[in-house]
Amino acid sequence: MTVASPYAVELARIPVTERVAEVAGATTRIWEYGAAGTDAGSRTAADTVIVVVHGFRGDHHGLEPVIAHLGAAGRRIVAPDLPGFGESGPLPREHDLAGYVGWLDALVPLVKAESPTAQVVLVGHSFGSIVVSAAAAGATGLEPPAADSIVLINPIAAPALSGPRGVLTKLAIGYYRVAAALPERLGFAVLRSALVVRVISVSMAKTHDRELRRWIHDQHDRYFSAFTNRSVVLDAFRASVSHDVSEFGPAIATPTLLVAADRDDITPIEAQHALQAAMPAAELVVLDEVGHLIHYERPCEAAAAIELFLGERPRIADGATEGTTTA
């Protein structure tokens, strides 16, 4: 039985449309939220376009709680499923970081063309933070997407094995290696194991709210195994543990907001502070008593931090000193 979202009321207030676009050879399913995304004519009226990039093994549903609190008038929020995940088709190439960066580089101009005068904001969560930062740094040799600002939620600020629970990452690497070594059908079944998904969900959730935990587990049960095939998820996993935002941060001059958690099992909070210090124009907001699921457990605070950042962005762009805020 589906568990009702605690953010359903907020999300229901926002108009949403769906469409499909061919992006970098991948049939990409896109959801658009906000009054500015209801038809082609009103799209051009949006003063801000926010493109959100979800994390590994998830799909666009993961960032819907944050979107629910960002649905202000005059904003167009574009939420695609990454190629090979959710309802999007795979790329016609390896699903490595370069492949995903090329896809994002192709997506942003399409979005920008429909709202040519709008400010463009790129938001990435977890693995999405790596994709967004690599694209913004021009790491694959492509021209960085024309973004006016960047937001990274639960950024992977250091190598995954350096996290507070790096042993879990080592276990995950072993799990994916086993899945890769097995015959195709059996390996695919192992990757979609409901038991493994629940273990991952339980390990990441920090909230003591039983109903919220129940909903988080339901979200992972429903969407965490929606990938096209074994190759897609194995490629993406290798990309997620082989790179991190610290590789690209120093080359990103675009004003950037880092929304981090003090109990994130993947990235120690010290690495978030180091990342912010290494980036030319970054602010860091740290949310207390939450881990790698800010988008599920603290979306209201994340959205509030984004709203404040977007409102103050000219100050950052003018060279004011960026700081750290704790919430």
Q: Could you explain how this protein is built, in words?
A:
By secondary structure, this protein is an alpha/beta fold. The chain has a single domain, classed as 3-Layer(aba) Sandwich (Rossmann fold). It is 42% helix and 17% strand. The chain is built from 13 helices and 9 strands. The chain has helices at residues 8-12, 40-43, 64-68, 97-114, 127-136, 166-181, 184-191, 194-204, 210-223, 230-242, 269-278, 294-297, 299-317; strands at residues 16-23, 26-33, 48-53, 75-80, 119-125, 149-153, 256-261, 282-287, 324-326. Strands 1-2-4-3-5-6-7-8-9 form a 9-stranded mixed β-sheet, sandwiched between helices. Helix 11 (269-278) links the parallel strand 7 and strand 8 (282-287). Residues 36-44 and 314-322 have low confidence and may be disordered. This is Alpha/beta hydrolase. Keywords: Hydrolase. Residues 50-305 form the AB hydrolase-1 domain. One of its GO terms (molecular function) is hydrolase activity.
